[in-house]
């Protein structure tokens, strides 16, 4: 095709976005790495180069281990629900039934509403004399300190993340379900297959790439969870619900421990990077086996 | 027999979906119920009462008089509005050469943009904050700079650029050639020929950027020092501190703050639930 633009034109179009991305993505990215090699603890205005001391300090810190473990539990507990529940709901909604739009709106509502409001709503459900403990009492279970018991708090927060994510992933599955060829279902009907085998043999293989996608994004967003924890528990009690982003926030903006915060940020960066790559490679393979 | 089977199947599906729907909105309903209970009603009573015996708006009035919701709403509108406009313009600008032009360094720029998707904001927020401080884009300088600090770090992202790029790729090249022959310059081709053709994608980008910006909490809570620039989520979180044990007010305030986004959602629902927005998937 005839080149209808001058040589410099493409760069002109790219420039505004490039300025933003460089200023607020690339420079901060490298600065995070640089900061992680400095100690700000002794004098915040005159940091000293300490090489990997921040990293060794982190690895020796029992709190950071706890934080990593919590983050890992978050991932392990939230992701399967966020992959499976929305898939089942999407398959149910995808049937030709009445009221689909209403169901979609209601199930999608938690996605739209601010996570701050959602966290407050759940805090109210979880109150010591709250409605959830009333239901527990119906089953003769003593009141549970949903957000005050160190053994429970993390899971109570995870529930909020799952609850808020279901509608979002359901919509991703729904748009993928539209792409499944109807003939395949009809062939199943001719063979007299029951609904379960139908979905196992037709729906599931077709949705493999989407399941991979949902696994990737839900894992990464589980790594990044913050607001639920900030609003509901502030990482407590006894650090029991503190995950890595909350830890970074606390170190950076409450303790002004910029070096340690940056070292923890680099660890978060690496985990997110590895997660993206693992999921991509793993599910990319699956995709080719179809 | 066949008929009975399909009826029971339909019943099962509806039952499940009704339960899921109720679970999805119950936390809000319970908040609403609490907000409508007057001071004469015990909000902790067992068994809990879902429908208030004497429903009242007094909590809404009370919290409205103490919290400048209109100010927070306006701040949220300003921040989300400009974030959307900037995202639309910058994404569409950057996407055009990436989709349509040949130039030196295209591959590098393409992959560098792609790489930013893998950088979580939470991992770089500290240096972003330091940069915003250095540029004086904080509300302690003045409100305008404060707004800049809230908006600019989110003025564009790789998702938007790639979404727009996909849209441009789908347009036949003949469109540009014809426009060029008709005497359009390259900017006119972008503005007058290409942009009108990608309006649906622009709408999707606008709506999802709006929702994201509207709900953003972490960044404003880091940069803001004055209540004058609080956005709704920051204002709502503040309710907890102001009315520590007054759950009627906290509930009423949360409901008030949620009304605008629900209205927006209902008005734009087809964009959210049509199931045709593959491109709008975000991490």
Describe the structure.
Chain A has helices at residues 9-35, 53-60, 62-93, 100-112, 115-125, 131-138, 153-177, 182-191, 195-223, 227-232, 244-254, 258-289, and strands spanning 38-39, 48-49. Chain A has one domain (59-289): MetI-like (MetI-like fold, Orthogonal Bundle). Helix content of chain A is 73%, strand content 1%. Chain A is mainly α. Residues 277-283 of chain B have low confidence and may be disordered. Chain B has helices spanning 2-35, 58-66, 69-100, 106-116, 121-134, 143-151, 158-169, 174-181, 186-197, 199-215, 218-223, 232-242, 247-267, 269-273. The radius of gyration of chain B is 24 Å and the shape is globular. Chain B is mostly helical and 283 residues long. In chain B, helix 4 packs across helix 7 (158-169). The chains are: A mainly alpha (290), B mainly alpha (283).
Per-chain topology:
The complex is a heterodimer of chains A (290) and B (283).
Chain A: H1 9-35, E1 38-39, E2 48-49, H2 53-60, H3 62-93, H4 100-112, H5 115-125, H6 131-138, H7 153-177, H8 182-191, H9 195-223, H10 227-232, H11 244-254, H12 258-289
Antiparallel strand pairs in A: 1-2
Helix pairs in contact in A: 1-12, 2-12, 3-7, 3-9, 4-7, 7-9, 9-12, 11-12
Chain B: H1 2-35, H2 58-66, H3 69-100, H4 106-116, H5 121-134, H6 143-151, H7 158-169, H8 174-181, H9 186-197, H10 199-215, H11 218-223, H12 232-242, H13 247-267, H14 269-273
Q: What structural class results from the helix and strand content of chain B?
A: mainly alpha
Overall outline of chain B: globular
Radius of gyration of chain A: 24 Å
Q: Over all CA atoms, what is the radius of gyration of chain B?
A: 24 Å
What is the N-to-C succession of helices and strands of chain B?
A: HHHHHHHHHHHHHH
- The count of helical stretches of chain A stands at 12
Tell me about the largest β-sheet of chain B: none
For the termini of chain A, the CA-CA separation is: 38 Å
The number of distinct structural domains of chain A comes to: 1
C-alpha geometry of chain A: globular
pLDDT averaged over residues of chain A: 88
Largest interface: A-B, 98 and 97 residues
Whole-number mean pLDDT of chain B: 89
Q: What is the string of helix and strand elements of chain A?
A: HEEHHHHHHHHHHH
Task: Report strand % of chain A.
Answer: under 5%
User: CATH superfamily name of chain A?
Assistant: MetI-like
CATH topological fold name of chain A: MetI-like fold
User: Any idea of the CATH class of the largest domain in chain B?
Assistant: Mainly Alpha
Overall number of domains of chain B: 2
């Amino acid at each position: 095709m005839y080149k209808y633009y001058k040589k410099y034109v493409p760069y002109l179009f790219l420039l505004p976005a490039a300025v933003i991305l460089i200023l607020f993505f690339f420079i901060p990215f490298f600065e995070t790495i640089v900061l992680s090699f400095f100690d700000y603890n002794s004098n915040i205005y005159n940091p000293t180069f300490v090489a990997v001391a921040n990293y060794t300090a982190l690895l020796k810190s029992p709190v950071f281990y706890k934080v990593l473990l919590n983050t890992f539990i978050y991932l392990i507990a939230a992701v399967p629900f966020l992959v499976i529940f929305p898939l089942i709901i999407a398959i149910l909604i995808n049937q030709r039934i009445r009221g689909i739009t209403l169901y979609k709106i209601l199930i999608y509502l938690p996605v739209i509403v601010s996570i701050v409001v959602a966290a407050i709503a759940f805090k109210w459900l979880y109150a010591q004399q709250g409605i959830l403990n009333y239901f527990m009492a119906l089953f003769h279970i003593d009141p549970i300190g949903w957000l005050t018991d160190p053994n429970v708090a993390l899971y109570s927060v995870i529930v909020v993340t799952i609850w808020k994510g279901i509608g979002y992933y359901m919509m991703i599955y729904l748009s993928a379900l539209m792409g499944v060829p109807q003939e395949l279902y009809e062939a199943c009907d001719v063979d007299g297959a029951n609904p379960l085998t139908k979905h196992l043999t037709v729906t599931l293989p077709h949705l493999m790439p989407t399941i991979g996608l949902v696994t990737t994004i839900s894992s990464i967003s589980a790594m990044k969870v913050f607001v639920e924890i900030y609003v509901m528990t502030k990482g407590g009690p006894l650090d029991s619900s503190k995950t890595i982003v909350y830890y970074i926030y606390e170190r950076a903006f409450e303790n002004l421990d910029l070096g340690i915060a940056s070292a923890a940020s680099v660890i978060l960066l690496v985990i997110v990077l590895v997660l993206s790559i693992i999921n991509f490679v793993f599910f990319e393979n699956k995709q080719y086996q179809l | 027999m066949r008929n009975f089977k399909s009826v029971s199947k339909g019943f099962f599906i509806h039952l499940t979906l009704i339960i899921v729907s109720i679970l999805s909105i119950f936390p809000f309903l319970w908040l609403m119920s609490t907000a409508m209970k007057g001071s004469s009603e015990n909000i902790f009573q067992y068994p809990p009462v879902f429908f208030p015996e004497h429903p009242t708006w007094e909590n809404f009035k009370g919290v409205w008089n103490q919290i400048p919701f209109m100010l927070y709403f306006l701040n949220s509108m300003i921040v989300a509005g400009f974030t959307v406009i900037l995202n639309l313009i910058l994404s569409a600008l950057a996407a055009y050469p990436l989709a349509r032009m040949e130039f030196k360094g295209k591959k590098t720029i393409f992959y560098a943009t792609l790489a930013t998707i893998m950088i979580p904001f939470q991992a770089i927020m500290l240096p972003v904050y330091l940069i915003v401080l250095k540029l004086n884009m904080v509300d302690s300088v003045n409100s305008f700079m404060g707004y800049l600090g809230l908006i600019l770090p989110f003025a564009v992202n790789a998702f938007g650029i790639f979404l727009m790029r996909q849209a441009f790729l789908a347009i036949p090249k003949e469109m540009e050639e014809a426009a060029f022959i008709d005497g359009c310059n390259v900017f006119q081709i972008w503005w007058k020929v290409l942009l009108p053709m990608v309006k649906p994608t622009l709408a999707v980008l606008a709506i999802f950027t709006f929702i994201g910006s509207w709900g953003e909490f972490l960044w404003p809570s880091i940069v803001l020092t004055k209540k004058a620039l609080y956005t709704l989520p920051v204002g709502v979180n503040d309710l907890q501190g102001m009315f520590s044990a007054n759950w009627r007010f906290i509930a009423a305030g949360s409901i008030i703050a949620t009304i605008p986004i629900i209205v927006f959602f209902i008005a734009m629902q087809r964009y959210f639930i049509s199931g045709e927005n593959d491109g709008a998937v975000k991490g």
